[in-house]
Amino acid sequence: xxxxxxxxxxxxxxxxxxxxxxxxxxxxxxxxxxxxxxxxxxxxxxxxxxxxxxxxxxxxxxxxxxxxxxxxxxxxxxxxxxxxxxxxxxxxxxxx
Length: 96
What we know:
The longest helix has 22 residues, at 65-86. Strands 1-2-3-4 form a four-stranded antiparallel β-sheet, covered by helices on one side. Strands 5-6 form a two-stranded antiparallel ribbon. 23% of the residues lie in helices and 41% in strands. The chain is globular, with a radius of gyration of 14 Å. It is built from one helix and six strands, in the order ββββββα. A hairpin with a 2-residue loop joins strand 3 and strand 4 (41-45). It is α+β, with helices and mostly antiparallel strands.
């Protein structure tokens, strides 16, 4: 499976830094991934829904560590590129 597009929408909130939308093989899209500032740095959270007991469950997620790392690395690279675009003197970069 190939990641063919990543869109990052920056947020100006305390913990929520951005939303990400990822397209796979030009035919499947996962929206509402979140880039969150955690206690140990930025983390990529999968889209989730709230259960009746108040807990949350991912509705889409990687099923192995290798693909999770690949996905996180590419989304975080796009996030960093978007941050640089917002800086007045920074150049944009293409993460792919």
